[in-house]
Amino acid sequence: MKKALFIFFLYFSVQSYSQNYIPAKLDSITSIYKNKGEYEKVFQYNIAALQYYKEHDNPEGEALANINIANALSTFDEHQKSLHYLDEAKKQLHIINNNGLNARLCNEIARNYAFLGLYSQSNIQLNKSIEYLKHAPDTKENRNSLFFVYIWKWSNFEDLKLPDSINAMRKKGKKDFPNEPKIYVRIAEQFLSKKQHLDSVEYYLNKASVLAVKNNSSLHAYGAIATRRGNLYTLKKDYPKALEYYQESLPIYLKINRGADIINTYKKIYETYLALHDILKANEYLTKYTELNDSINSGERKAVASVVNNLAIEQEKEKNNLYLIIVVITGIALVSLTAVFMVRKRNKNKNIRRDQLLEEQKKLINEKILETDQLKKKVDTSINDLAKMATSNNPFFISKFKEVYPEFYEKLISQYPELTHHDIKFIAYVRLNLTNKEIGQCGNVTLRAVETKKYRLKKKLELPADMDLGTWVSEL
Predict the structure, then answer these.
(1) How crowded is the C-beta side of 195, counted as CA atoms within 13 Å?
(2) Domain extents for the chain?
(3) Long-range residue pairs from 37-40, CB within 8 A, at least 24 positions apart, any chain
(4) Could you list the residue ranges that cross the membrane (predicted)?
(5) How far apart are alpha carbons 99 and 137 in whole angstroms?
(6) pLDDT means over runs of 10, the chain (476 residues)
(7) Farthest-apart Cα atoms in the chain, separation
């Protein structure tokens, strides 16, 4: 009852306050809530503002509120809903010319794509953001947008394993934003990932901590610093100290409901308890990790499917535009040929032959398009058949897998000849992007058994502890 009354009064207080909104005030109050990690208030506050802007026909306010709502939803790992609000913001920005808001729109799309593992597509959006910012006024908000671009491109380059690009973003970040704590957190992360210069890690994390306090940074910045300190002490094999920092970061991520960070911290705590030989506590956090990971992975798969579908639609539009251009050019060419035909009758045979060649080329292009579509359908069918064979535990599953992924299979067995038939079968399930639950159904085993198998396989393959098995399989 108390909770219902609280939400009731919060809603109407926000509604009355929203009537004094101007976009700058909306941004200011949203930032205060975000820094405190109060993302539910961010959501409620901007929902009320969005309604107000709609009633008062303010497309700039609508776009800004939609972007802020999308940011909160993305933080909750609700990427499909987040992208829906960004589509709404895009409609409003077609009405007005605001380079700063267009940059923020691109940044939020990029953020969703990065969370979904679409790093190259994310960078395309960040590059668009940079172009908008070149024509935007030099304001605090636009400087924040540029910093956002630096941080996320840096992160994307790390996931894409592009060291030259990573170093370029590191130099730009230190030069243009020397007082931002997240710059030094990322530098510390680089050293941690390479397991080098651990004294430098301590130095950069201390610098980040000082700047976080000085700048009154967001809660997430403190969580990020604590997590990296935990990683540092894990490398030093000081597991009690590592656990202390992971336990410090966890309530921060739970408060701001940051799913990806919560999952990662559950996994770190599980591995730390395992190193401390506390099996009971390790299993407790393994269960939390598995349940949340499966839940988020399911949502992410739906969001990725939606994004891929939208990208396909955009590509189809571009293809149709290209066809239209070809038709126009062909029409102009035909008109010109007709004129030449009328003026120079003696070139009649030559022009007829040219038309025949154009028709043959057009026919050849159509045949290639049809061939490509048929090949794509065949591949999609093969992958679906494989998934069905896996879940039904078909004895010919591996034989079919070799046919669909011949290069992957040959590379796997040639590089890792020590793998057993069961190991190869398990890796095949991972290659098909089956969830832990689905893998468990294939082998008629528990979720815990699946996680244990993944852990043992990583050891057998001599993979780093922080590397995800699915990522390794997709990159093999």
Answers:
(1) 7
(2) 1-96, 380-475
(3) 37/218, 37/219, 37/220, 37/252, 37/255, 37/256, 39/72, 39/75, 39/76, 39/256, 39/257, 40/72, 40/257
(4) 322-343
(5) 9
(6) 44 47 77 78 85 88 90 83 91 89 93 88 92 91 88 88 87 90 90 87 92 89 93 93 93 83 91 93 89 64 47 50 60 63 61 64 58 50 74 81 84 86 87 86 85 86 83 81
(7) 94
